[in-house]
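Q: What would this chain look like folded?
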Amino acid sequence: MSAASPGFRRHRPAQFWLLGLLLLVGTALPALALDKPHREVLPNGATLLVLPTRSSPTVSVNVFVKVGSFEETAQTNGITHFYEHLFFRGTPNLSGHQFKRAIEAIGGTTNAATTRDFTHFYINLPRMQVERGMSLLADALINAELSDESVDQERKAVLEEYRLGSESPLRVMSTRLYEMAYGRHPYGKPIIGTEENISSFQRQDFLRFRDAFYAPERTSVVIVGDVELQEVLPRARELFGAFRREAAVPEVLPDPVSPPEQEVRVVETSASTRTSFVILGYPGPSVQDRPDIYQVDVLAFMLGIGRGSLLGRELVDTRKAMEAGVDFLTQRHPGLIVVSGVAPAGQEEALREDLLAVVEKVREGDFSDRDLVRARNFLRSTYLLGNETNSGKADSLGFYAAIDEVDFATTYLQEIEKVTRQDVIQAARKYLGPGRYCLVVKARRPAGEEERAGR
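A: My prediction, written as structure tokens:
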């Protein structure tokens, strides 16, 4: 279980440090074009998506709930992620240990993740056990008991996760960048929450949270795999159609993300690393901003995803930077386009200028048609690989059902193929402008090494 984004088609650049940073920022790339699933809205408001496939005798059963740190206040920050930990801790029908044993007994694997926009739970299992998998997920979704004992046990796990994160330079950098960029907007809060909140949440807090946000109208049930529609639909309707929440609150939209200031905002800090980082955050589009969202995806791959990208060739291959890359996460509200690099200590200013110089080249159209073709091809192959499995397909469908509409996933590649050279230039000029946030992280020798050095 994790407070970072789930494994939605993450690209896997060769840059190890960059991969770590992007996972913490919350990387989730859009899905490739998929076959359209069967979609229906149950009488209670829950959405049911079923996509039969024949790639393997397995099934992925998923529940996506549209509640993330986005819905939290300062007082409840962290409760969504904490609740994720409690999801399989028991119901009146099964204890937490019985849940785990039941999943293992049918040959299943399970996990969950919390993001800014939604929470995701899944069980991957053999096809003949799909009904049992649906029953287990529905039981946890509707009847989570949230006992005092479970809360106290999971509090220890969440606090340990929090403390490990507070010692991770990459997580600290991600948190700081989002605070800079979003301020009081919900995206500015850390997904894992604060230590004070984690320590103080009680059973009644989770009951109120569950009854307010774990509602059928916020829920998508996604089933992908070796199933027959006429066999799986009646049972899915029966199980998830029984879901009710009388006290559920309607979705409330916060104030929009403030437009970026025209002046560059720079924050300098230090961390226990042997190298230094420069991270540029540019306010980007939301999933609603089309066709911009497709143009920025291609822009990101061309500028800094993969060693053949512009940043890879012009900074890494020439040894101006140890690593450099770009990340962009599609979200319900405007996301961040993150341009980042790593260099030896003391070279932060030169690295920042080099990053900005490559960005400016794209804004001016100083790239080849071959660069554009490479970006589209790499984007396409990344998504194809990410959707090879039933689990990957379910991730794609559920991700977009949670933040927009599932049709986004089924038409994505068609839209990517429409992106032209002028589109990329236009997107770069619109989003990679002067209103950016710059986080400079200077290397500081880890505490243990400082002590040894002082002897």
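Residues 148-166 form the longest helix (19 residues).
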